[in-house]
Amino acid sequence: MFKRNQIQKSLVVAGVTLASFAAFSQQNETTTASVTVQNAFTLTEDAALSFGTITATVVSGTDGTLTVNPDGTQGQPAGGIRVLVPGTAASYTIAGAAPFTDLKINTNVDTVALINSTAPPGSPEFTLSAFQVTDGTVTESINSGASAFTAGDFQTDVGGTLTVGLGGTLTLPGGPAELLIDGNYEGNFTITVSY
């Protein structure tokens, strides 16, 4: 009986001792939670969209058209347009974005008037439309109402960089036969890139 009581007392003392060590072995560490916001990136125009040098005549009942594809190739001209010097696609570089991130690309308008600022009022003008963008692998149509975006289509690389080409179609509306006045025909539009 004496040994049993002694063993019980020893176990009680050992349990109290272990409980004391457990209470004294607690450690605390203050930690920090964080998040990095990276909304900013750069969008640079490397080359403007150019339809080259052409001859242009308004043809009765037939629209003249010329397409510069976003990969830089050029379609066959139609109507009263003939190519003298081929055009080039626009090129844009996005840099400083998050790596491997999908980007949306669109324009602020669906059509752009290209006007010769030295021509008299009422002179024929071109319309630019049917914008397309490519990253060299995927080509998407874009406009002001819909972004070129299917998950994974336009994605930055490991360095957060993406280069895209942009093309479109130039149209000279048909009408009474008329030669266009020589000079530069220009119009502006905005390309928007977002996460």
Automatic annotation (TrEMBL):
Signal sequence, renumbered to the chain: 1-25
Keyword set, alphabetical order: Signal
InterPro entries xrefs: DUF4402
Name recorded for this polypeptide: DUF4402 domain-containing protein
